[in-house]
Amino acid sequence: MGFESWIDRQIREAAERGAFDDLPGAGKPLPDQGKPYDEMWWIKQKLRAENLSFPLPGTLALRKEAEEAMASASRARTENEVRAIVTEINQRIAEATKKALSGPPLNLMPFDVDEVVRDWRMRNPSPGAPVSPAEPPPPPPARRRSPFRWLRGAR
Questions:
Q1: Most buried in the list 61, 69, 77, 112, measured by CB within 10 Å?
Q2: CA nearest 103: which of 66, 53, 59?
Q3: Closest CA to 112 of 82, 148, 88, 86
Q4: Helices 58-74 + 79-98 axis angle, to 10
Q5: How far is 47 from 41, CA to CA, in rounded Å?
Q6: pLDDT band at 144 (very low <50, low <70, confident <90, very high)
Q7: Cβ 106 vs Cβ 96: under 8 Å
Q8: Model-level pTM?
Q9: pLDDT tens track for 70-115
Q10: What gap in Å lies between CA 18 and CA 122, rounded to an integer?
């Protein structure tokens, strides 16, 4: 073979036939051009193309699920639906604390179902119910007596 190899000749002949004319992305800039090199670029590109999310470690995935559950509980239509959502995420949290999950520490406690329902009721009053004033704030904590009160002359 001369200067033009067999592969180069195949490419040239295909271009002359027009095999490369209607390729997707023709005339568009290369994606991610100018960004720093990332070893996992092809995985990230595939995840974007398939509309998938990057897999999170178990503890972070559960935290994200808990946030989404609380958001869906606040948008729930009925009190029973709120209770069901919170009960389900509490069960998942309880299961996760019993077994070791990958990732950083979970640091997530089960939610108080009654408190979540109370918050939901405040945001979503029932149509026929009279609007009651908010619960009175809890009393301030009692002041601790100083162990050095004898210095000031107080008994």
A1: 69
A2: 59
A3: 86
A4: 170
A5: 10
A6: low
A7: yes
A8: 0.51
A9: 999 999 999 999 999 999 999 999 988 888 878 888 888 899 999 9
A10: 67
Contact 119, 146 (CB under 8 A): no
The number of beta carbons lying within 10 Å of the beta carbon of residue 120 is 19
Per DSSP, 130 falls in state P
CB 6 within 8 A of CB 14: no
> How many helical (H) and strand (E) elements, i.e. helices and strands, does the chain have?
6, 0
- What distance in Å separates the CA atoms of residue 114 and residue 83, rounded to the nearest whole number? 8
Structure-token pair, residue 112: 């108080």
Structure tokens at 129: 């119910």
Q: What is the pLDDT of residue 151?
A: 63
